[in-house]
Amino acid sequence: MLIWFLLIAVPLFFGLYAQYKVSHAYTKNIQIPSRGGITGREAAEAVMQSAGIRDVEIVEVEGQLSDHYDPTHKRLALSSDNYRGTSLAALGVAAHESGHAIQDKVGYKLMNFRQTLVPAMQFAAPVSWFVLSFGIVLAAILGNRVFGMYIIELGIIALSVIALFQLVTLPVEFDASRRAKVQLVNLGILDADEMPGVNETLDAAALTYVAAFVSTMGNLLYLLLILSGNSRRND
Hints:
3-stranded mixed beta sheet; 7 helices; mainly alpha
């Protein structure tokens, strides 16, 4: 029970805390207008143009914090609040996504490596969800120890892929935020004394990536302990 609490429950609570932090920071700073009054779209365009990027389309998408950069289609998507908004949060998020576009242009190796992991990640995610949600319980109901071992091993492989993807994602996201913060000040989009709101928003967003990795590692270690225990019993 203690092991389950440390490896599963604690990361779960950490994830909930991270989600609260990003929601709180974004809600707070979306209400603080920037002095310059330019929109997130204009900020993203300015940051990319300063890096010599002119082949990336900036589009408006539905949803909250649905912002992302698609390197395959050279498309930077901003949610409506960030696309049209002039707040500190909107400019921070827009510049962050532009940071990914800059990474793409300069050939940032970790971003390229993450892209190569996307197909494996797309396969591993539903597999891990099935194993963690139903697989272990199904194996216990059937009472088939060999089947249970196979299910656990499959879950371990899937979670290992996800953990690697999330581990690589961390420096990619941190670097994009670093680039964003520098450019916002250097280009005069924001004054230095406006940056705390941007920092709070982007730092809270980064915490969600850390929480996701911690949660995956907790699940992975838990399955490894189950597999190890079953192996010892079989011996």
